[in-house]
Q: What sequence folds into this?
């Protein structure tokens, strides 16, 4: 009888040890995923060379972002070239806020400052640059993922939007 009790305790102790190991492994996995993947709630500072082609226009320039957990600044600096060879300058700063709805952050542009060097007609710029950079607008479902220590991927609805390097 005492050997049977000892055997049952040993089996129970082994099961509890296995369960404890599984819980610890799952906890480590959850912590790893929460730390390394989504950086939308943290600081961000990056810039990306970008080329956008649309209709009869080509934008070449740099998009840069500096963001803390609740607000940020985006800058657009570049040139738009038309098919007939005209070139226009784009220089603007966009102040935005970030609001979190669960795991779905929303960036809302609040104030746009246009440089006195910008000479592109508004109707031309509307054809090539997203609305977020032109007027009070929102971008939903932003994901910011750290690819490595120097590279950040900004995605919208899990579609890559901007691949940028840390400043």
A:
């Amino acid at each position: 009888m005492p050997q049977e009790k000892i055997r049952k305790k040993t089996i129970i102790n082994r099961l509890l040890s296995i369960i404890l190991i599984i819980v610890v492994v799952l906890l480590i996995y959850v912590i790893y995923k929460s730390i390394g993947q989504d950086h939308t709630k943290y600081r961000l500072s990056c810039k990306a060379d970008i080329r956008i082609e649309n209709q009869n226009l080509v934008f070449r320039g740099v998009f840069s972002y500096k963001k803390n957990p609740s607000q940020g600044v985006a800058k657009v600096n570049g040139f738009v070239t038309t098919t007939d060879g005209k070139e226009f300058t784009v220089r603007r700063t966009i102040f935005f806020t970030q609001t979190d709805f669960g795991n779905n952050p929303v960036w809302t542009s609040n104030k746009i400052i246009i440089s006195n060097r910008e000479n592109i007609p508004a109707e031309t710029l509307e054809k090539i640059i997203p609305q977020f950079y032109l007027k009070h607008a929102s971008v939903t479902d932003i994901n910011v993922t750290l690819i490595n220590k120097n590279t950040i991927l900004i995605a919208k609805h899990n579609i890559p939007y901007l691949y940028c390097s840390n400043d």
Confidence is low (pLDDT under 50) at residues 36-40. The CA atoms of residues 109 and 148 lie 28 Å apart. Strands lie at 44-54, 57-67, 71-82, 87-101, 104-114, 138-140, 142-148, 151-156, 159-166. The chain is about 25% helix and 50% strand.
